Amino acid sequence: MTASAMRSLTVLLIIAGVASAQAPETEPLDADERAAVVERTSQLLAERYVFLDVAEACGAHIRAQLEAGEFDDLSDPDAFAKTLTESLQSVSHDKHMRVRLHSPTRARMQQENPARAQARARDRRRQQNFGFERVERLEGNVGYVDMRYFSGSPQARATATAAMNFLANADAIIFDMRKNGGGNPDLIRYISSYLFDEPTHLNSLYWRQGDTTQEFWTLDEVPGPRMADVPVFVLTSSSTFSGAEEFSYNLQTRNRATLVGETTGGGANPGGEMPINQRFGIFIPTGRAINPVTGTNWEGVGVVPEIAVAADEAFDKALAMAQEAAEAHRKKAEAAADALWTDLEEGHAKVERLIDQGRMQEAADVITDVVRAATEAGLLGEMDVNMLGYQLLSQGKPQLAFAVFKYNVEAYPESSNVFDSLGEAYMNDGQIDLAIRNYRKSLELDPGNSNAEKMIKQMQDGSGAP
């Protein structure tokens, strides 16, 4: 066979293969398949749908339609899926409940190696940046996040962490949910945890299977600063759905955000897609949301924003509000900082008085309280406190220096540097055992700390400080 003939044969085989893959999707429906789809759909709903009585009513309704011949003219698979969805929703009023025709791409994916299919799916999510369409800083120091879905991928959390840490210095934040169709409740909880500083019950999900209720609370720890007092605005539209509605509703009911835009789509019952046959599937809600504040959810009614405007006007409206809120947030922070500096100055004066009276332990307690207050308010950092400790050492006030260095160890227990400094203070005071202990901790946290290694060797050799 010639090379040209081989190429022609290859092309024909590829065309034939594509046609074969697509054939199940485009092949007209017959009466037997319509009946089988209706029957299997009814069974799945009765087995899985969160409300059994509604599931049985849905099954009875579509069986009656089939018996009455109302589906007889539907030979097109796509048209049948849409009609069946409308029939089911006319009874359930559940917008999550949808019959879907599998696309040719999905049909091929179902037939290929599962590991390869998962790899393809992961790469698609990566290319979509796990739903984070845009993260930026706007005029007025307003942070902005445009999210299209809440990904359940393990890699999504790293992207969320980067996004939230980028926003950490913002004086107000806008979350754009206008094109967000929902997603994973764990990522909703993760992002929300940055916006609260106390344990907060965000939402619960009741699951029919097992008759269990799963509670979603903010996380005890997040990598990076929390923004519990930063004003938050959420943009919504009629396309905001499911998990995006949960995110909006959670923050609204906790008075943590102002919603701007349109009433959302109204889907509060989570679930998953289940196969009916080779080319049809149905999304069945197997649970329902229960908000801990209202005791209900947004199913069928949507989440109603405080500021009702058209979706395409929501951004401009929210930005103006966020800029005003950011300015107020800055002024409040500045006033609090001024008051704290006054307290610190008064604390410093008290320390000096106690030193003059020889009451060194009381002075050490006061300076620890002063440094703690300044650190927690963000006025002093690790290096600032360290420098204060060395300053006190140079002034011949080792008891106060120890108090400051010990607080730094308490505040930054993962820092090699703070243990190194405390070790040096003990060494200079002749407390060799304590010095070695702290230098070893410093070396454990940073094996590359050659200074700690050198100091330990010198003290063990009996030579003491250099």
Largest sheet geometry: 6 strands, mixed
CATH class of the largest domain: Alpha Beta
| Strand residues, percent | 5-15%
Q: Please give the count of helices.
A: 16
Which strand order spans the largest sheet, edge to edge or round the barrel?
2-3-4-7-8-12
How would you state the average pLDDT, rounded?
88
The CATH architecture designation of the largest domain is Alpha-Beta Complex
User: How does the overall form come out from the CA principal axes?
Assistant: elongated
Instruction: From the 3D structure, determine the CATH topology of the largest domain.
Output: 2-enoyl-CoA Hydratase, Chain A, domain 1
**Rg result:** 32 Å
Our measurement of the CA-to-CA distance between the termini, rounded to an integer number of angstroms, reads 87 Å
CATH superfamily of the largest domain: 2-enoyl-CoA Hydratase, Chain A, domain 1
Helix content: 40-55%
Task: Please explain how this structure is put together.
The protein has 466 residues and is α/β, with parallel strands linked by helices. The chain is 55% helix and 13% strand. The chain has helices spanning 3-26, 31-48, 52-67, 77-92, 104-111, 114-127, 156-166, 185-193, 243-253, 311-356, 360-376, 382-394, 398-411, 416-428, 432-445, 450-460; strands spanning 98-101, 132-138, 142-147, 172-176, 201-207, 212-217, 232-236, 258-261, 271-275, 280-285, 287-290, 307-308. Residues 1-23 have low confidence and may be disordered. It starts with a helix and ends in a 6-residue tail after the last helix. The protein has 16 helices and 12 strands. It has 3 domains: 13-110, no CATH class; 126-325, 2-enoyl-CoA Hydratase, Chain A, domain 1; 339-460, Tetratricopeptide repeat domain (Serine Threonine Protein Phosphatase 5, Tetratricopeptide repeat), CATH 1.25.40. The strands form 3 sheets. It has a 6-stranded mixed beta sheet with strand order 2-3-4-7-8-12, with helices on both faces. A 3-stranded antiparallel beta sheet has the order 1-10-9.
